[in-house]
Amino acid sequence: MLRRTASPGDLAPAVEATLAEFLNDQISALGGVDPALGRFASKTRELVLAGGKRLRPTFAYWGWRGVVSPHAPVEPVLPALAALELMHMFALIHDDVMDGSATRRGNPTAHRIFATEHGDAARSGDSDRFGTASAILLGDLCLVWADQLLARATLRPATLFAARAGYDRMRIEAIAGQYLDVLGEAEPGAWSLERALLVARNKTASYTVRRPLQFGLALAGPPEADVAAIDEAYSRYGLAVGEAFQLRDDLLGVYGDPLVTGKPAGDDLRTGKPTALLMLAHQLATPAQRAELAVGSECARSVARRAEVIAETGAVAHVEALIQRRVSEGVAALAGTPIHDDAYAALTDLAVTATHRPR
Q1: Least CB-packed of 94, 169, 272, 339 within 10 Å?
Q2: What values do phi and psi take at 5, rounded to 5?
Q3: CA separation for the pair 308, 214 (Å, rounded)
Q4: Beta carbons of 193 and 276 less than 8 angstroms apart
Q5: pLDDT, tens digit, 9 for 90 and up, residues 328-344
Q6: DSSP alpha helices (H): ranges in 34-156?
Q7: Which homologous superfamily does the CATH classification assign to the domain defined by 1-154?
C-alpha cells in the first residue's frame, strides 16, 4: 500500500502493476477470439510498459492526496490513475502517425512496428499503409481500454461521475490542441507566438498537468477543504507548469540527444512546425536569419543549420526564461492553498523536475 509519504517513485510501480494486470486480461480475451487479435493487442502492453515518466498519474495522485485523509488507501483510485496512461498512449500513437515519427522512448513507434511486421511476413499490399491503419486502431483500442479501466475504480458513483466529467473535458481539450498543432503545420504563415502557446496549453498543459490534478481532486470525493480554492489553484499551477513542460519539449525536439529523449531531434524543423521556439526565433531574427529559417531541405546539415540560427537569434534563452517564469507562477499559485504539506512539497518539486529534463 502507498502511504501518505509516498513519493512519485513509489507510485509508478503500483500504476504499472495495475496496467499489466488489466492489459493481460484484455489481451487474453481478444486472443481467445483469434490469435491474430491477441498478437495485435499485445502491442499495447509492449508500448505502455516500455517506459515513460508516468507524469499524468503522478500529478493526479498528488491532486488526490492533497485533500484526502492521511490514512486513505490508494488502491481504490489506482485504476483511475492508471487509465491516464492508456489515454496518454492513445495520444502518443496517433501523434506519431501524424508526425511520421520513427521512434518513441528509444523504440520503434507503433506504425513502424506494424509496417516492419507486414514486410517481414511478405503480406500483400503496402507495408506503410498497413502500419498506419493498424496503429490508428491500436490507439483507438487504448482509448476504449482507458474508459474501461477508469470504471474499475472502487468509488461512489457520484464521485466517479464527477471525475469522469473532468476526464472527458481533458480528452476533448487534448484532441482540440492536437488539431491546432496539425493546422499550424498547414498554415505556418498565419501562426504566431500566442497561437503556439494556445496549442501548448490545450495539447499538453491540459492533459499533462492541469486536468490530471483536477481529476485527482474529483477522485477524492466530497472534500473537507475549500474545493473551489484548491481547484482554482490546481488550474493555475497546471496551466503554468504544463506550458513550461511543452516549452521544454520544444527545446528537446530541436536540441535533445535522441539517446536521452528516446525521440529523434530535428523533426519539428524538418516539418516547419510553428512551435513557440520557432515563432520566437522568427520574431527576433534579422531578415537574413529569417530567410535561413524558412523550411528548405530536410537533410541533416540544413536542419542543423536552422537549429544554429534559432540559437543565434536568442530564442533559446527567451524560451528558457519563459520556462523559469512559468514554473515560478505555478509554484506561487499553490501558496496558501489548503492542501496537505506533503502534496505541496511534491508539486513544488514536480514543477521543477518535470520541466528541466536533460538533453
Answers
A1: 169
A2: -90, 15
A3: 40
A4: yes
A5: 999 999 999 999 999 99
A6: 35-48, 55-65, 78-99, 110-120, 127-150
A7: Farnesyl Diphosphate Synthase (1.10.600.10)
